[in-house]
């Protein structure tokens, strides 16, 4: 067992504290500025007020942007859950020519810079499909998000499938269970934590995406990240961004918590 001397422990504690301060002090400043009584965010704040919370909660543009983000993230996650799981089963359970190439192509969207993916999809949607009379519109943005959301589900599910015991499925088949019954009672419960964790991560990634969205969003459609970016150009409205950021910080704790629980459950099995 590795033992650290007192000086090393103190050094590690200081480094950890500095990292935590660097990560969480900016969040604290955002939260405090959401209650800023002044028009321009700053530090220290001149006083506390709920004015910006009241304006943000009744802001119809923010409501529309939030709804768009939720719809896009939910639909993209649904596609990712289906396609990512099927791809994981195909690559784990079957051997075929070009298997490693297919695996690379599935993972590639998450490794590419977002601006590259955005430009590629934008060119496809507006310079190839549009002249052919195919208007992707709102669905184009959803498809764009699904391309990288699939990777989150795929990576989680295939990692779990590699650790599963195939003898349980064989025993189920020997006892007379059909493919559907075996999948429902034996296979799915084993990889369900990874399935849920992948879905939560995919939703969070889609909800937060801005670079790809800039290139693929239809004219006049804003997601919440786009709304935030546009509001940052208006100095007198930036505190509304702080309110939304505070709400997102609090809400983001929910999927992160359940994702961690699901991942821990997947590892323990």
Number of helices, where a helix is a run of at least 4 consecutive DSSP H or I residues: 11
Q: pLDDT below 50 for ≥5 consecutive residues: which ranges?
A: none
Helix content: over 70%
Globally, the shape reads: globular
Mean pLDDT: 84
The CATH architecture can be named as Orthogonal Bundle
Query: Structural class from helices and strands?
Result: mainly alpha
Strand portion, in percent?
under 5%
How many domain modules? 1
The helix-strand sequence is HHHHHHHHHHH
Sheet with the most strands, sense and barrel status = none
- Which topology does CATH recognise? MetI-like fold
Radius of gyration: 23 Å
What brief labels describe this structure?
11 helices, mainly alpha, MetI-like fold, 269 residues
Offer a concise description of the structure.
The chain has 269 residues and is an all-alpha fold.
Task: Give a description of the structure.
About 75% of the residues lie in helices and about 0% in strands. The chain has one domain (about 65-269): MetI-like (MetI-like fold, Orthogonal Bundle), CATH 1.10.3720.10. The model has no long low-confidence stretch (mean pLDDT about 85). The protein contains eleven helices and no strands. It has about 270 residues and is mainly α.
């Amino acid at each position: 067992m590795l033992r650290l001397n007192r000086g090393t422990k103190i050094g590690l504690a200081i480094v950890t504290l500095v990292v935590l301060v660097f990560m969480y002090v900016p969040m604290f400043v955002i939260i405090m500025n959401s209650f800023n009584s002044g028009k321009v965010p700053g530090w220290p704040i001149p006083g506390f007020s709920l004015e910006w919370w009241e304006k943000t909660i009744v802001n119809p543009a923010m409501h529309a942007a939030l709804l768009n983000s939720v719809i896009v993230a939910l639909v993209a996650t649904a596609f990712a859950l289906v396609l990512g799981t099927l791809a994981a089963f195909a690559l784990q359970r079957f051997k075929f020519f070009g298997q490693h190439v297919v695996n690379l192509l599935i993972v590639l969207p998450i490794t590419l810079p977002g601006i590259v993916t955005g430009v590629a999809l934008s060119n496809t949607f507006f310079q190839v499909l549009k002249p052919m009379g195919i208007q992707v519109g709102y669905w184009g943005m959803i498809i764009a998000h699904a391309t990288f959301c699939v990777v989150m589900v795929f990576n989680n599910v295939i990692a779990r499938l590699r650790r599963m015991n195939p003898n349980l499925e064989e025993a189920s088949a020997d006892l007379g269970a059909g493919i559907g019954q075996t999948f429902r009672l034996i296979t799915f419960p084993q990889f369900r934590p990874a399935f849920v964790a992948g879905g939560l991560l995919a939703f969070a990634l889609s909800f937060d995406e801005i670079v790809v969205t800039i290139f693929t969003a239809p004219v006049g459609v804003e997601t919440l990240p786009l709304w935030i970016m546009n509001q940052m150009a208006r100095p007198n409205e930036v505190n509304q961004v702080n309110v939304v950021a505070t709400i997102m910080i609090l809400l983001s704790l929910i999927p992160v918590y359940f994702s961690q629980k699901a991942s821990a459950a997947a590892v323990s099995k």
